[in-house]
Amino acid sequence: MVRARRNKSYRLAELYDRRSRDLPFNAEVAEIEVDDPLAFEPGERIIAMRSIRSDPLGRLHSHRQIDEAQYRGGRAFQNDWERAERGPRAVDPTREYVDGTRTPEAVTESQRQAVLRLNRVERELGTDGAALVHDVLVLGLTMDQIGQRRAVRTQRWNDYFARRFRECLDRLALVYGFATETGTPRAERRR
Questions:
Q1: What is the pLDDT of residues 98-115, one digit of tens each?
Q2: Distance (Å, rounded) from C-alpha 36 to C-alpha 43?
Q3: Are 23 and 50 contacting, i.e. CB atoms less than 8 angstroms apart?
Q4: What is the pLDDT of residue 71?
Q5: Angle at 80 between CA 76 and CA 81, to 5 degrees
Q6: Opening angle at CA 112, ends 180 and 116, nearest 5
Q7: Hey, which of 52, 116, 126, 164 has its CA 20 to 30 A from 17?
Q8: CA distance 159 to 80
Q9: Stated pTM of the model
Q10: What is the dihedral of CA 163, 164, 167, 168, to 10 degrees?
Q11: DSSP states along 30-62
């Protein structure tokens, strides 16, 4: 039996591989499958690279330490936080300059809804859980940094914070509708 040799350059998979091989010096990236923006058929997907360097939620998801519902719940929380945040704004050169005083911008309906959802999240997670979620998802802190901020620096505390954060992500997935509650009803769990 004689095997025919195949020319490796003829493979179609390598022919259309458009991924960049050049990465910045200390880049931390992971592959993710996304919808193809140039697709002819709906539902076509491509592999893209996402940076996980300053994204703790993306890092946990790419290492398969959290599931898709937890990931989406965390992203929904981040989206609500960004929408509800009303901090310092950049100067808008398109607005007319009057006398230096700025009239406060009206609160939009999407901001109001985001604040209501964030209030519900805080009630569901409790004060400690909401602070933990804020530290990780908004400030981007690691479990070690969270322990340092709270003056507990042992591995046992880091493991506790990681376990508690996953519990909070489970609750976020429930609050935002990415998961459904199974098992015992809530009233029985409180006893």
A1: 666 566 677 788 889 999
A2: 8
A3: no
A4: 94
A5: 115
A6: 40
A7: 52
A8: 27
A9: 0.72
A10: -140
A11: EEEEEE-TT-SSTT-EEEEEEE-TT-HHHHHHH
